[in-house]
Inverse folding.
């Protein structure tokens, strides 16, 4: 039999059998507006442990807990400040994750990786909210990818990774944003961005003009998200960051190059590169609007790995806006060796 939710997010795959499977500790994959998540009951240690095993995730890297409605957050975490309330009201549902003190014994210790805090998010995707509402459980879900690899941004990518280990993979088409949520923590009157995302520092400043908004220093493990210290988001092919201010890098003749660059870069350098190599521009976008790059970045990594390329060149788009900063945060991590 099919289940409908309070908000009537009907979907034929949200069946009673599926609900029993998740309540019994099963792992499933679902779309969100940022990236696909690989989820399980956040109240169940064994279910959360399965996610770590399937992903090959380091044990010290906690999971984000997803709830259907912001009103549910207080069941699992303490909201102590007016600033936290205003962030929740302004950005949830949406691509914001907030770190809060966990209510002891409420959330699986495995999901929190033993920390006293919990990361909470209310996704803004009708299928995700439908699933969460029918299950009526908090769902711990990291991004759907084997540890270190690009997050899945389509059901096809998720299937390619996990078809043999996860029986339920919901298809919600391509993710709207394409990069993971912005993670924040509030300290006094400061909002610290632990992981940049599509909710930008300027969006937070606009909602909270009386607060300081800072990026956490990646080298300070106490104030950054534990996961940010790991190599991430990387395709198998070597990634090299290029800049419009410099001539293209020296690349061996007859290399096969995949290129992600702005229209402006292509216009300036395509002919120079083309004389020496085989070049395939995968994505090009207007310098003033990197949303397309965010949306297709991870899918492009996968397509480049399927092709026979020697190198992937990605243009440095700077950090003038919060979204550009979030994209370059991912690109730099994928260029680490
Ligand atoms: O958009 C997203 O956030 C996606 C979708 C599926 O919701 N999820 C996601 O999860 O990106 P994951 O596991 O790939 O990244 C979660 C990050 C990790 O860097 C982890 O260290 C951090 O959140 N995190 C989780 N709990 C935390 C906590 N209590 N304190 C600080 N950081 C935490
Ligand atoms: Mg991830």
């Amino acid at each position: 039999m099919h289940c409908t939710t309070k908000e009537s997010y009907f979907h034929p795959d949200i069946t009673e059998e599926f609900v029993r499977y998740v309540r019994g500790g099963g792992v499933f994959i679902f779309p969100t507006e940022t990236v696909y998540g690989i989820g399980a009951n956040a109240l169940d240690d064994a279910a959360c442990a399965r996610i770590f095993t399937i992903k090959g995730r380091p044990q010290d890297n906690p999971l984000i807990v997803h709830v259907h409605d912001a009103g549910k957050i207080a069941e699992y975490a303490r909201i102590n400040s007016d600033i936290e309330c205003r962030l929740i009201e302004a950005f949830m549902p949406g691509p914001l994750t907030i770190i809060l003190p966990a209510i002891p014994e409420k959330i699986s210790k495995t999901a929190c990786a033993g920390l006293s805090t919990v990361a909470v998010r209310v996704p803004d995707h009708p299928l995700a909210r439908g699933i969460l509402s029918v299950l009526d459980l908090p769902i711990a879900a990291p991004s759907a990818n084997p540890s270190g690899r690009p997050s899945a941004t389509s059901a096809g990518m998720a299937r390619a990774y996990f078809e043999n280990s996860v029986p339920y993979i919901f298809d919600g088409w391509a993710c709207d944003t394409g990069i993971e949520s912005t993670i924040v923590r509030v300290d006094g009157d400061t909002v610290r961005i632990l992981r940049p995302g599509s909710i930008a520092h300027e969006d937070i400043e606009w909602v909270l003009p009386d607060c300081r908004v800072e990026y956490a220093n990646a080298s300070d493990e106490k104030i950054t998200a534990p996961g940010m210290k790991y190599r991430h988001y990387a395709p198998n092919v070597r990634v090299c960051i290029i800049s419009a201010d410099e001539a293209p890098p020296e690349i061996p003749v007859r290399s096969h190059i995949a290129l992600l660059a702005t229209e402006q870069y292509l216009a300036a350098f395509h002919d120079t590169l083309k004389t020496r190599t085989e070049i395939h521009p995968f994505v090009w976008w207007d310098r003033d609007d990197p949303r397309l790059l965010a949306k297709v970045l991870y899918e492009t990594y996968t397509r480049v790995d399927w092709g026979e390329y020697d190198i992937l060149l990605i243009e440095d788009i700077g950090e003038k806006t919060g979204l550009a900063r979030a994209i370059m945060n991912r690109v730099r991590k994928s260029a680490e060796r």
